[in-house]
C-alpha cells in the first residue's frame, strides 16, 4: 500500500476536477445559466483550503512567490504546496513530491507531507466537493434524469469525497504508535463504508428537497443543532480557545449531517452508535415524509 494512497488521491482529484469543468461547460453550452452559476459558486468555498495552504506556507517562514499565488488562485495548491518542514527539492511539498518521497524517504518525512495534503484535501472536499455533489445529484434526480455529464460529475465527487475521508483516516492510523499501514482489504472496506454513508444521506436530502423544496433546510437545521449540542456535550478539547471551540463544534455539527469524523481519542463505538441513531432517524424522516 506504500504510495498507493497518494496516487489514488491524485487520480481522483484530477478526475473530479475534469468532470466539474465538463459540467460547467455543459450548462453553459445548453444555456442553463442558473445551474452554471450555482456550479461556479460551489468553487468559492474551496478557497478556504487554498488560503490555509498559504498561511501554513507563511508560518514555515517562506514568502510565497507570484507563481505559487497563481497556482492557489487556480485552486491547484494541493498539486504543488510548499512546506518548510520537509526536505523536498526547493522546499516543495505536493502530491507529486509525496509520491517521490514514498519511494525513498524517511517515515517522518513521508508523514509530514502526507498529513498536510490529507488535511487540506479533506477540508477542500467538505467545503467544495460536498456542495457540488449535492447540486449535481439534485440536477440528476429532479431536473435532468438523463443528464450524463451531471451524473458522472456527481459520481466522481461522491467517490472523491469518500476517498478524502478514507485517506485522512489512513493518515491518522499511521500516526498511532506501533500502527502500520492498513492492508488493501481494510482500505477498500473503509471506502465502501464511506461511500454508502454519504450516498444514502445525499440521496435522502435530494429526494426530500425535490418534494418539499426549501423545507429540507429545516430538517438539515434540526440535524445540525442536534449534532452540535452533542459535540458540545462531549467536551472535545481539540480547540483551546472558547470562541474557536464553539465555532469548531458548529462546523463539525454541519459535517455530521453527512458523515462521521472521530475527533476524540479512545474507543468510539458509543459515539458512532449515537451518530447512526440520529442519522437514521433523519434519513427515514426525509424518505418517508
Automatic annotation (TrEMBL):
Localization (cell): Cell membrane; Membrane
Main subcellular location: membrane
Topological type in the membrane: Multi-pass membrane protein
Gene Ontology, cellular component aspect: plasma membrane
Keywords: Cell membrane, Membrane, Transmembrane, Transmembrane helix
Sequence intervals crossing the membrane: 33-57, 137-165, 185-207, 214-233, 245-263
Family membership noted in the UniProt record: Belongs to the XK family.
Name of this protein: XK-related protein
Native organism taxonomy: Eukaryota, Metazoa, Chordata, Craniata, Vertebrata
Gene of this entry: Xkr5
Amino acid at each position: 500500500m506504500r504510495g498507493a494512497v497518494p496516487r489514488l488521491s491524485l487520480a481522483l482529484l484530477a478526475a473530479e476536477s475534469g468532470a466539474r469543468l465538463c459540467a460547467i461547460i455543459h450548462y453553459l453550452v445548453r444555456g442553463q445559466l442558473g445551474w452554471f452559476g450555482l456550479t461556479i459558486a460551489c468553487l468559492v468555498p474551496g478557497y478556504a483550503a487554498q488560503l490555509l495552504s498559504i498561511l501554513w506556507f507563511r508560518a514555515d517562514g517562506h514568502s510565497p512567490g507570484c507563481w505559487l499565488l497563481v497556482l492557489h488562485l487556480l485552486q491547484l495548491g494541493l498539486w504543488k504546496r510548499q512546506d518548510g518542514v520537509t526536505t523536498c527539492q526547493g522546499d516543495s511539498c505536493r502530491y507529486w513530491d509525496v509520491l517521490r518521497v514514498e519511494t525513498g524517504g524517511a517515515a517522518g518525512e513521508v508523514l509530514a507531507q502526507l498529513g498536510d495534503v490529507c488535511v487540506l484535501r479533506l477540508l477542500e472536499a467538505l467545503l467544495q466537493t460536498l456542495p457540488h455533489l449535492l447540486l449535481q445529484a439534485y440536477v440528476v434526480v429532479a431536473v435532468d434524469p438523463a443528464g450524463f455529464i451531471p451524473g458522472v460529475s456527481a459520481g466522481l465527487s461522491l467517490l472523491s469525497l469518500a476517498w478524502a475521508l478514507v485517506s485522512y483516516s489512513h493518515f491518522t492510523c499511521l500516526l498511532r504508535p506501533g500502527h502500520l499501514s492498513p492492508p488493501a482489504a481494510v482500505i477498500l472496506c473503509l471506502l465502501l463504508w464511506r461511500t454508502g454513508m454519504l450516498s444514502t444521506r445525499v440521496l435522502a436530502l435530494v429526494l426530500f428537497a425535490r418534494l418539499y423544496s426549501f423545507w429540507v433546510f429545516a430538517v438539515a437545521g434540526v440535524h445540525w443543532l442536534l449534532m452540535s449540542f452533542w459535540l458540545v456535550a462531549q467536551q472535545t478539547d481539540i480547540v483551546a480557545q472558547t470562541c474557536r471551540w464553539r465555532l469548531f463544534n458548529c462546523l463539525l455539527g454541519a459535517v455530521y449531517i453527512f458523515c462521521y469524523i472521530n475527533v476524540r481519542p479512545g474507543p468510539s463505538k458509543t459515539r458512532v452508535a449515537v451518530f447512526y441513531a440520529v442519522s437514521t432517524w433523519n434519513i427515514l424522516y426525509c424518505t418517508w415524509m
